[in-house]
């Protein structure tokens, strides 16, 4: 096993890579991945929000922080103030962190002279290393971006050249991996359908929190989806996968991960396209768990997606008669029990055929069935 002079082995470096890659793929929270990877280098992890007027929104960059870079507030400090405070506005001015952020938005050069910046810089010793950056309006005013990386306190040794080389290699691997993840997602049948649907008109937006469910519906959403249907989501009447409900939070989306997208069945709405994303609309922003703001977008597909060719699907997958009869009802969002009433068969029989159908199509549940078939047999949007 190779090991450098400071004790970082090839195995532990590989573990750090795996942690970061897992976060890129959305398999674990960025905060957890950064913390685990930082331990490899005997460092701490940081998630820093930067107001960057010199870098336009939507661009992507990754670089080291240099000593000339300004140390920006940690994410939790940033959310002590109005995350969308505009230049010239003084909110919570008695709080020195708030005053520092205000000053940052007015004049970045003056920001480095604030009391908070000096404390922050002393704490980190200027030894902050940025893994990569990404832009997302959810993190602050337009033009803001978030930096994810490692740092050591002033009383700890600086990163040596070997460690810098290792972290550089790790840093450079992230953007290509992100691109690969997006490409692989788009190559899936379900992914193609979901991505194509994204190009349609904007869907309803809900402000939700990981612990409390739906908190607010935007006025713009009311004319797109009836409030009664949205209430159905809170009641569990939209057949979201249990894992999707459980993982609303940091696991499915991150500052740089393609936002979670699903096509799921609804008993009253038929196929529903669901997207979980960061909330860019500051007028309705709600600070949820760990300062993150999320929106769930819903759109009924009935008006824009014709019924799938069930006969073709039946032939393609070799479905039996009862399975073929059940299929259209499942695609419209009806549960097997509701379909049993329409087909005049027993509930147990309908459930049994549904399970067989899921097994034949290699999906876990009705949501997977809808997503697969709309992606595979839906029109080419």
**Biggest β-sheet strands, sense, barrel:** 5 strands, antiparallel
Overall pLDDT metric: 54
Distance between the termini: 52 Å
SSE sequence, one letter per element: HHEHHHHEEHHEEHHHEEEHHHHH
In the residues, how many domains can be counted? 3
Name the beta content range: 15-25%
Number of helices: 16
Name the overall outline. rod-shaped
The strand order across the widest sheet is 5-4-8-7-6
**Rg calculated over all Cα atoms:** 24 Å
Low-confidence stretches: 1-5, 48-95, 123-146, 184-261, 276-298
Number of strands: 8
Question: Helix coverage percent of residues?
Answer: 40-55%
Structural class: alpha+beta
Describe the structure.
- The chain contains 16 helices and eight strands.
- The chain has 381 residues and is α+β, with helices and mostly antiparallel strands.
- The protein has three domains: 171 residues, no CATH class; 115 residues, Beta-Lactamase (2-Layer Sandwich); 68 residues, Orthogonal Bundle (Arc Repressor Mutant, subunit A).
- The protein starts with 9 loop residues before the first helix and ends with a helix.
């Amino acid at each position: 096993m190779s090991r450098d002079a400071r004790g970082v082995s090839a195995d532990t470096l590989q573990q750090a890579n795996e942690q970061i890659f897992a976060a890129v793929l959305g398999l674990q929270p960025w905060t957890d991945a950064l913390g685990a990877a930082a331990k490899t280098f005997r460092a701490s992890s940081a998630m820093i929000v930067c107001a960057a007027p010199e870098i336009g929104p939507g661009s992507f960059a990754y670089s080291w922080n240099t000593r000339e870079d300004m140390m920006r507030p940690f994410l939790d400090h940033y959310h002590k103030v109005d995350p969308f405070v505009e230049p010239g506005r003084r909110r919570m001015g008695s709080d020195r962190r708030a005053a520092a952020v205000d000053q940052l938005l007015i004049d970045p050069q003056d920001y480095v002279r604030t009391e908070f910046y000096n404390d922050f810089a002393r704490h980190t010793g200027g030894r902050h290393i940025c893994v990569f950056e990404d832009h997302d309006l959810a993190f602050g005013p337009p033009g803001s971006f978030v930096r994810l990386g490692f740092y050591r306190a002033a009383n700890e040794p600086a990163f040596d050249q070997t460690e810098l080389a290792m972290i550089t290699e790790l840093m450079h691997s992230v953007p290509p991996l992100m691109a690969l993840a997006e490409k692989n997602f788009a190559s899936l049948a379900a992914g193609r359908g979901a991505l194509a649907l994204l190009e349609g008109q904007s869907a309803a937006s809900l402000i939700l929190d990981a612990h409390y469910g739906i908190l607010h519906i935007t006025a713009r959403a009311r004319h797109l989806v009836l409030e009664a249907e949205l209430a159905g989501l809170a009641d569990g009447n939209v057949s979201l996968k249990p894992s999707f409900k459980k993982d609303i939070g940091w696991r499915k989306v991150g500052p740089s991960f393609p936002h979670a997208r699903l096509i799921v069945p609804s008993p009253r709405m038929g196929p529903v396209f669901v997207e979980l994303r960061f909330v860019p609309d500051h007028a309705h922003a709600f600070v949820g768990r760990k300062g993150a703001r999320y929106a769930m977008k819903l759109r009924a597909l009935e008006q824009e997606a014709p019924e799938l060719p069930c006969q073709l699907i039946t032939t393609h997958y070799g479905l039996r008669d009862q399975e073929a009869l059940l299929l259209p009802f499942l695609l419209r969002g009806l549960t097997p029990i509701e379909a049993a009433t329409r087909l005049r068969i027993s509930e147990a029989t309908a459930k049994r055929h549904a399970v067989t159908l899921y097994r034949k199509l290699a999906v876990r549940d009705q949501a997977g069935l809808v997503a697969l078939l709309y992606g595979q047999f839906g029109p080419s949007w």
